[in-house]
Amino acid sequence: MIAYEVEELCFRYKKEDAYIFKDLSFVIKKGEILGIAGDSGAGKSSLLFCLTTIIPNHIRGIINGKIKLLSKEISSYQQAELFKKIGFIFQDPDMQLFTMKVEDEVAFGLENMCLDPPEIDRRINQALELVGMTAYRHSYLNKLSGGQRQLIAIAAVLSMKPEIIFLDEAFAQLDSVNKQMLKKQLVLLKKSGCTIVIADHDNNILSIADRTVYL
């Protein structure tokens, strides 16, 4: 099955004349790990933003072509629908952390999903265990290192169990031990049926990808 279909996608930022990419066509298969590779400035982040409607909903630009998510034009989805299907992890965790404490951060999306308190508690524990941060459940985020905050941002996304997870240079602030841990968890998530898209310049990280798109 196909998760995403991209046809002749073109994008440039509002105040720029040059296109970041033009006539880009590819598919993302459901249940695979797809790597997005390329030099700095090649458009990896911009592509992920287009695939998740961050562009044009939050970042302005000129976008042409077709993007279909699960055979449906992505522009026809309500944001609440996408919220349930897609998880996004930024390179800088502070771009997506909203609260002061670890457990509140992981609970934030779950509460918006209107889950029962016992289920929220179970998912918080499960997600923190997946990233090795169980001992920090009651910690303040401003007391954690950049790498630890990144793990909490990842836990918050994993707790919502999205069908598709996008990681935009999300390994950058992790040490070698946590990079290996995250790679193993992503492979396990793939085996459970999750679709994963990783944009990165590190071939070691992209070694877990089933296929790679080069920009």
Task: Give a verbal description of the structure.
With 215 residues, this protein is of the alpha/beta class. It has helices at 44-51, 54-57, 79-85, 102-112, 117-130, 146-159, 176-191, 203-206, and strands at 2-13, 21-29, 33-37, 61-69, 72-73, 86-89, 164-168, 195-199, 211-214. Strands 6-7-8-3-9 form a 5-stranded parallel β-sheet, sandwiched between helices. Strands 2-1-4-5 form a 4-stranded antiparallel β-sheet, covered by helices on one side. A hairpin with a 7-residue loop joins strand 1 and strand 2 (21-29). The protein is globular.
Q: What does this entry show, briefly?
A:
This protein has 215 residues and is an alpha/beta fold. The chain contains eight helices and nine strands.
Instruction: State the end-to-end CA separation.
Output: 24 Å
The run of helices and strands is EEEHHEEHEHHHEHEHE
| Major sheet strand order | 6-7-8-3-9
Helical content (DSSP H or I, runs of 4+) = 25-40%
Helix/sheet category: alpha/beta
Number of discrete helical segments: 8
Can you count the beta strands? Answer: 9
List the helices and strands and how they pair.
Elements: E1 2-13, E2 21-29, E3 33-37, H1 44-51, H2 54-57, E4 61-69, E5 72-73, H3 79-85, E6 86-89, H4 102-112, H5 117-130, H6 146-159, E7 164-168, H7 176-191, E8 195-199, H8 203-206, E9 211-214
Parallel strand pairs: 3-8, 3-9, 6-7, 7-8
Antiparallel strand pairs: 1-2, 1-4, 4-5
Helix pairs in contact: 4-5, 4-6, 5-6
